[in-house]
Structures are given as structure tokens and as C-alpha cells.
Amino acid sequence: MARRRRVLTSEAEFLALPESVDKIELLDGEVQVSSPPTLFHQLVLGRIFVKLSIWAEGREPRPFVGQSPLDVRFGANRILQPDALVVLGEVDATAKGPLSQVPDLCVEVVSTDRVYDRVTKRMIYAAAGVREFWVVELAGMIERWTGPGLQTVEEVTSVLETPLLPGLSIDVEALFGR
Prior knowledge:
Strand content: 25-35%
CATH class: Alpha Beta
CATH topology: tt1808, chain A
Structural class: alpha+beta
Helix content: 10-25%
Strand order of the largest sheet: 3-6-7-8-9-10
Largest sheet: 6 strands, mixed
Order of helices and strands: HEEHEEEEEHEEEEEH
Number of helices: 4
Distance between the termini: 58 Å
């Protein structure tokens, strides 16, 4: 009986992969390739990104608001691409390679791989020190995960506000076009 030897991908090998428009992530040596997002996923994500970007305008220091595809290092051999993110501190926009600062907020619009988006990524984000995590359900609800280890959840269906981003207010119904 022949044994197959599984070879894990190193961070250096992952970073040497050619550029792609696909969402490709590295999780503990495993390369994860996500299915392409739906049009509705992109519409909702775009609206969230715009709301976060408008909120960041004029704040000092100016928060960095990013959107996938953008590699972010959450630990050794853990390079993920949150759908959207906010870093409240200064970011060197000229730096090469993945963003090395852990975001304060990560947003995932749930795709076809629900467990990966909802559970796996929450655990990785929590271990890295992300302060808040939004899981956006395309059915019209946002879960706002906070607290130590991102263990506290609030289901939001009307207006999303957070002490992490003072002054931000997102009409959840409008976000989904309702």
C-alpha cells in the first residue's frame, strides 16, 4: 500500500504565486481558493466598503480601509483576505507584501463556504487580536462579534453601530436594498 505524502505550502512559496484575481489564502500550509463571489455579494460588499471609507474621511490619524483582494498576515503561514477591513492606526501604503498590521475590524460577506467564513476565519481573527468581526448574511442580517476571543455576538437587522468606529451608522435594510 503506497502512502501519499502531503506537502504543505510555505509562506514564501505562497507569496511567490503569480498574481490572480481569485481569492487565494494560506492557512497553516494549505492554500484555500474561494469560489467567485456572486453579484449580490459584490454589491453588498461595495456598499459596506463605501460606508467605511466615508466614515474614515477626515479622521486623524486616518484609518485604513481595505477590500479584498488584499493579503493580510494574521500569523505565520496565515495570510487571508478579509472581504473588508479597517486598521485604526497608521499603515505604510508603500510597503511590499502582505499587510502586516492586524486589522481592528474584519468583515466577511458569507459565501458558499459558510463554515470557513463564519467559524474558521473568526477563530483565526480572534487568535490574531482582531477586535471586531462582522459576518454579513446576504439574507439581510449582520452578526457583530466582539469581546475576548470574539465570543460575544449581536445579530443586527436594523441599524449597525459600534463603539469601535464612533459615529458610524449603517442602515442594514438599505445595505441589502430593502
